[in-house]
Here is the input.
Amino acid sequence: MTVADDVMDALVRTTFEVAGVLTRIGGEHDLSLTQLRVLGILSDRRLRVTDLAAYLGLDKSTMSTLIARAERRGLLARGKNPDDGRVVEVYMTPAGIELTERVKDDIRRALTPATGRLDPQQLGQLANLLDVVSARPSRAHAEPGPTAAR
Amino acid sequence: MTVADDVMDALVRTTFEVAGVLTRIGGEHDLSLTQLRVLGILSDRRLRVTDLAAYLGLDKSTMSTLIARAERRGLLARGKNPDDGRVVEVYMTPAGIELTERVKDDIRRALTPATGRLDPQQLGQLANLLDVVSARPSRAHAEPGPTAAR
DNA sequence: GAGGATGGTTTGCATTTCCAACTATCTTCA
DNA sequence: TGAAGATAGTTGGAAATGCAAACCATCCTC
Here is the structure.
């Protein structure tokens, strides 16, 4: 009851805090939170418009205009899929990759004051806990056994 | 280096995840993420427009229109400050308080699947770690009682 | 190979946000 | 004290974001 509430409060608070940092850093590079996210996703992938939209929980049309703008800016490019003429695949240009790297550095720098308050052991702990919360297979398989039975 | 990076990745990923949940829940009540946040802030405070804007990192004018809409909707109200005729103070109406409670319940419910993957001890741990990260005075400052190590 | 399904784009609309310009109220100091 | 400047909010204009609906183009099914 209280513990779960505490976590949720902390989660929500941290979310707004981190989102604020991301918004600010993004803004410094003329990127919205969503654009930031798209760049992050595409940095190691090449996705179709629909998949990207599904991933972000956005409408296809929203995705389309967003990509169009990024393309106009030279950050992304669209390519045809040889197997299916309807499909458009989106991927990053060198300029996009370069910008993404720069932004990631800035984000790292901006978050360091916050994470710097934790010692290495706590950092590892936090990473694992967050992995669990955000439904990511834990990186250090420290969670043995079957999942608790609800 | 790697550990800090892991945490940042997890932090960013969780941020997007939680923000997504908040956006969805907010949307169900016709509230944007920012409006949600304003309600959260004002639930135990009464603030001037400028302070609210500073708190959220938004422009005064943005704040102004946002408040106007919420006021039109009956969620917030504006009051004069007797000491300074320029100041406008914003506070919640009963309807706003009621809606906020409802939304908070929904958020709790929506986040339960995620936090439910942690046992009570991990929940406490996570809450404390996040408190440190988001620069909140830790709630269990000295970890009293039977807190297990690790 | 006709009809429906799927993938994207375009258009129209509401919302969010910024900046600049404006009004009203305070504060300073000459 | 009273004019000049600072501060608090609001308003208007513009760009970005997002959705929904209408629309092509391509694929798949029978």
Notes: Chain A touches chain B through 51 residues (CB under 8 Å). Residues 29 and 102 of chain A are 9 Å apart (CA to CA). The radius of gyration of chain A is 18 Å. Residues 32, 34, 58-59, 61-62, 65-66, 69, 84-87 of chain A lie near DNA strand D (CB under 10 Å from a C1').
